[in-house]
Amino acid sequence: MRGLGPFLRDAWYLARPYFVSEERWSARGLLAAIVLLNLSMVAMDVVLSYWNRAFYNALQDKNWQDFLDLLLTWKVTPTGIMPGFCGVAAIYIVVYVYRTYLNQWLQIRWRRWLTRSLLDKWMADRAYYRISLGSGTGATATAGTDNPDQRISEDARDFVRESLSLSLDLLSNVVSLFSFVTILWTLSGPFVLLGVGIPGYMVWVALIYAVVGTWFTHLIGRPLAALNFRQQRVEADFRFGLVRLRENVEGVALYHGEAEEQRGLSMRFHEVATNWWAIMQRTKLLNALIAGYGQAAGVFPIIVAAPGYFAGRVALGGMMQTVNAFGQVQGAMSWVVNSYSVLANWRATVERLATFDREIARARAAADRGVVNAADGELAYRMEDVTLALPDGRILMEHADLQLERGASVVVTGRSGSGKSTLFRALAGIWPFGAGTVHRPPGTSLFLPQRPYIPLGTLAHAVAYPAKPDDHGRPAIEAAMRQAGLDTLIPRLDDEDKWAQALSGGEQQRLAVARALLLRPDWLFLDEATASLDPESEAELYATLKRELPDTTIVSIAHRASVVALHARQLAFQRAEDGSARLVMGA
What we know:
This protein is an alpha/beta fold and 587 residues long. The chain contains 20 helices and 14 strands. The chain is elongated, with a radius of gyration of 35 Å. The model is unreliable at 136-141 (pLDDT under 50).
């Protein structure tokens, strides 16, 4: 974990943007209203302190009228009008309800803004893609890149909630301290120790008590921040494993991999339980200290003030006000002790969000490095002195030149792992590792991977992706479905389902082809995008693409000789002895 100074700077860095954003006036207005309500509650605590004094004095004096007045209406005292408990309680309830209501309102507005901001930065310059190439989950993930879904969802929620809760609670405690310290100073009077008079001695006792308690609390609870940080991570890793199993149930069932999946999930949960056990042990020690500290704080001021009461120097009401004032001062000074568990969790949340934000910034800063994708008006895709590398630095291809002419269908062949798919990623402008320039022609390009992406939503939305169904119209979508051989699914175009699991591999690839037929790109790149189909169906789809998209240039990656025969030219990846590849264009 980082030091206190860098941590506080991270917290400020995460919190400040919202209050200077386009929503700053509503954010500041809500925050000001919440602060005002919190200060009102502190003011009512001060009023209740004096009310307690008058009320207990009435009990001591057995004054029935004063008892009723202080309970139901008001009472005129030498210091002014003392309101009755019912009136104060009614106002207190209203203030408490609206303080909570406005706090929740600010929370959801702030969280909405923070979530949108994180999503914007994560998606910008394809930072999400670069981060995914350099990270993983569990032990292979870096501290700033594991489980981005949790960072954006749970960590953003916890940061907003805990930041508001802790900051407002701290403010209330500071105001309470200054409000009650004068009362306690006046009530406690001087204390003679070794012939020396100590004015306001109970204030000094409260200070010493709080300092000692805070020091012991920090000594015992310090490891909690790191443990909470790790708990958030292992919980997310376990949840990720469950999601992976849910998304690949058929593959697991076909392999009869239930035992291995259960073993893997059990190992991940073991990490959860082990870290939770460490949190339990540390929390047990911390709670023992806090509980003992709180119990002693409840009786300590009574013991200190009791001699004056029994000697007749202090009335019952005065003693109860002293006890109340001591509790308020000591409680305010002990804010760290009382909030330590929440502070530890908040620190872990800040660390996770800040490291994630820094990782996004690094990914976006590196967006201009690697293979440069230039749209400079050339009529063909042209690679100039391009080097392609893997994230670990291994070179796939060095100083390659290539030109793909418009109108000439090309098939790319080569051994698995030679770099064919990486070549397509470089042509698409998304591969960040390497050097050189890819000159991109005008017009639209569509890249279909072997495993199509099927978004959430209706089947019509999946076909039209990344456009919207209304952009093309229902007749065009149905025509594309028929041309791709998905006639039987047309009645379900408006159905929402888990289509990535509901459709077979071949159906998913047909859906991707329907997407190409609907979008009608100028350039169509297929990375084994029909490999799940039988050769006859594959040939039919290629014939459909050429018939329906006569002006589209098709570039394919394929291993089957039947697919190679459907293209005019062949581009072969040939592996050299040093492991790198070179491109050879044939007829």
